[in-house]
Every structure is written in structure tokens, then in C-alpha cells.
Amino acid sequence: MLAFGGKDGIIDIYDKATQKKTKYFKAHQSAVTDIMFTSDESQIVTLGADKCLKIFSVEDPKKTFRSKDRCHGFGVPNTICFHENEKYIVSGGEDNCVKLWTF
To answer: How far, in Å, CA of 23 to CA of 26, rounded?
Structure first.
């Protein structure tokens, strides 16, 4: 799967094999700044200029597993990555902070 986020907060998910859009959903109130899938591609983690970090089910994006509002106090958060065991998510932003999240 591939995922793309837009300035409108919408995420489009595509099937790599068919190159067709399989899902799309509104994830954020403003631009999506980063996206990651879990290793099993069952969940998608998103970060937005609205300062929210969210985890969605790929099967049913209406299910938001977790949401961290205002995850970076000052400035836009712009990058996320998983710790190798996927128990932690690391985010960084324009506030010059790196934050560790457990979910």
C-alpha cells in the first residue's frame, strides 16, 4: 500500500499492485505533514499541521485508535517514525523538540 496526504487533510491510500485508490478519508483539519504504516499495514499513523498525531485502522479509517492533540506546542510537527518494536512513535517538529509517544 501507498499513502499520500494533502494540504486539505485528506489521505489517499493506493494498492501498489493495481495502482488504484482503495480508500480516502479526512484525517486532519489542515495539511498532512507525515504518514507511516505499521509493519503489518493494518494501521496508519498520521501527523498534521493541526498539531495532531493520529492512528487509524486501514481497514476502517473511521476508527481512530488514538489521537494526540497539540502534540507539539509551538510550531508544526513534521516528522514521525517508529521505534524498531513499534511500541513507540517518535515525532519531531518546528518547535525543535523530539517527543516519544507510547500507544
So the answer is: 11
**What domains are defined for the chain?**
2-102 (2.40.128)
Contact assessment for residue 81 and residue 92, using Cβ atoms and an 8 Å cutoff: no
Over residues 74-101, mean pLDDT: 86
Per residue, the 3-state secondary structure of 80-92, as one string, reads EEECCCCCEEEEE
Please write the tens of the pLDDT for every residue from 2-18: 999 999 999 999 999 99
Residue 66 is predicted with a pLDDT of 67
C-alpha span between 34 and 39 (Å, rounded): 16
Helical spans, DSSP H, in the chain: none
